[in-house]
Structure formats: structure tokens, C-alpha cells
Amino acid sequence: MTRRQKVAANQPTIFDLAEVKYRALACDYDGTLAHDGVITATTVLALDRFRRSGRHLFMVTGRELPELKQVCPVLDRFEWVVAENGALLHRPADDSTKLLCEPASAVLVGILRRSNVQPLSVGQAIIATVEPNEVIVIEAIKDLGLELQIIFNKGSVMVLPTGVNKATGLTALNKAAGVSCEEVVGVGDAENDHAFLECCGVGVAVANALPMLKQRADFVTKGARGDGVAELINMMLTDDLAGILPHSRPGRSIE
Q1: Directed axis angle between helix 106-114 and helix 134-144, to 10°?
Q2: Is residue 6 helix, strand or coil?
Q3: How crowded is residue 144: how many other Cβ atoms within 10 Å of its Cβ?
Q4: Dihedral pair phi/psi, residue 66, rounded to 5°
Q5: Helix, strand or coil for residue 186?
């Protein structure tokens, strides 16, 4: 069976998964799959079609896991989830989790609480607030002499160990799933998706993504958020993104 064989008019091309170049789709959540935390029924149908094709479906998000479980009713569609912006690996099938870095600094959290930083959210590794609280956070990190970084995401401020991001989380996920980075298509919308998309075989930005992310992506969907993801899924199922030529990136070979 070849990738050019079709089962019927207006149906995706059917081909042997052994021939597939892109075996997995890794999606950001907020602003990509979801709008204001909600995934539409149309997007869910597209995700189900993708899973039925035999490919791998991953999520890579900045959200903390308990919060994600509350807002995402279809988390079980995803084989693996990278949460806390690369710090936590979760497998919905057995509800297992693995912390991929050092835990959140209790001392830093204490200082921020005493400084009345609001809002303040603390995960297993991530410490999150909003702009302009990064000024207080940076001063506290300096005073404590901690090796931590700040990552911005559309007004959100995330504190994580240096070097931890969505790309490092996806790398750990790929190892657990037995998939290479070159076989993964990534899709996102914001600042914290840059490194994540760069390490994928193809990096895609949805139509509502920030201008710089769209500029650096290999492809930009016509649709926004979930509509854009559904569009991308249809392209993957139809011809395995045959019409997209990934940009040349350092450390990545392009066939």
C-alpha cells in the first residue's frame, strides 16, 4: 500500500505507517488547542481521527498538571504530556508522572509570598506569576543566588531551573515514546514555544500565534487555535506534509 492510494473521494490518503515520515504530533494547549482553556468539539474530532490513524499524539504545555486535568476533558487522547513548561512528564493512561528537574525552591516561594506577589502558583518545579512581578522575582533570585531562569508567555511569568523548557521536556518524552525529534510535528502560538518548535521535524504556528513565532515556523496554518490544529491534522493524514520543506536549523539534518 502506498501513500498515493485513496479509499474514496474527499477522504485522507491511506498509506502504510512504515512509510510515514512524521509519526507524531505535539501540541501546545492554551492558544493552540484551546481558546480560554476550552477545546471545541471540532478539534476533538480531529484529534480522534489522528489517533485512529495509528500516529502518536502528545501535548506540551506550560500548565501545571492538576489544573490541566480540570480544564482539559480529553487529556486521555494524549499518549504523553509535558507539563510545567518542560519540567514534568505525564502519562494519562496510567496517571504516572516524572519530574525532569529540580523541584521548586521553597525558599524562593516563601520570599515571594511574604512580598505579596499575586497571583502566585507553585507546581512541582514551576513557579508562576504575571507581569510585572518579574521585577520582584528577579531580585529575589539574585539575592538567593539561585540558578533559575524566567520564561515569558503572553503576560505570564514562569520560573524554572536554568535550561528547562518545552524542548527539553519533548526530548524526554520522545525517548520515553520511542520517537525521534525528526518524526515529530510541533504546533504552538507563543514565546515559550520557540525552543519546542525548533527541535521538531516540522515546527508549525497557528494563525493567531505571535508574529515572531510565525516568522520562524516552517508553516503557518490558515485557521486559528483548534481550527488550525485540525487543518494541520488533515494535512498530515492526507500527504504526510509532502508540500512543506522545513527550514534548515543548526544541529538538525534536513532530508
Answers
A1: 130
A2: strand
A3: 12
A4: -60, -40
A5: strand
The predicted structure's pLDDT at residue 219: 96
CB 210 within 8 A of CB 189: yes
Q: Is the dihedral of CA 62, 67, 73, 75 positive or negative?
A: positive
Under 8 Å between Cβ of 111 and 104: no
For residue range 188-218, what is the model confidence (pLDDT) as tens digits?
999 999 999 999 999 999 999 999 999 999 9
In this structure, what is the dihedral angle of CA atoms 34, 40, 45, 48, given to the nearest 10 degrees? 30
pLDDT band with cut points at 50, 70 and 90 for residue 246: confident
User: In terms of Cα–Cα distance, which of 250, 244, 253, 180 is closest to 218?
Assistant: 244
> Residue 34 contacts by C-beta under 8 Å, 6 or more apart in sequence?
71, 72, 225, 226
CB 22 within 8 A of CB 185: yes
**What's the CA gap between 17 and 129, in Å, rounded?**
43
Asked if residues 73 and 94 have their Cβ atoms less than 8 Å apart, the reply is: no
User: Distance (Å, rounded) from C-alpha 242 to C-alpha 211?
Assistant: 25
pTM: 0.90
- Whole-number Å distance between alpha carbons of 51 and 60: 17
What interhelical angle do 41-52 and 225-239 show, nearest 10?
Answer: 20
Q: Quick check: 25 and 233 in contact, CB under 8 A?
A: yes
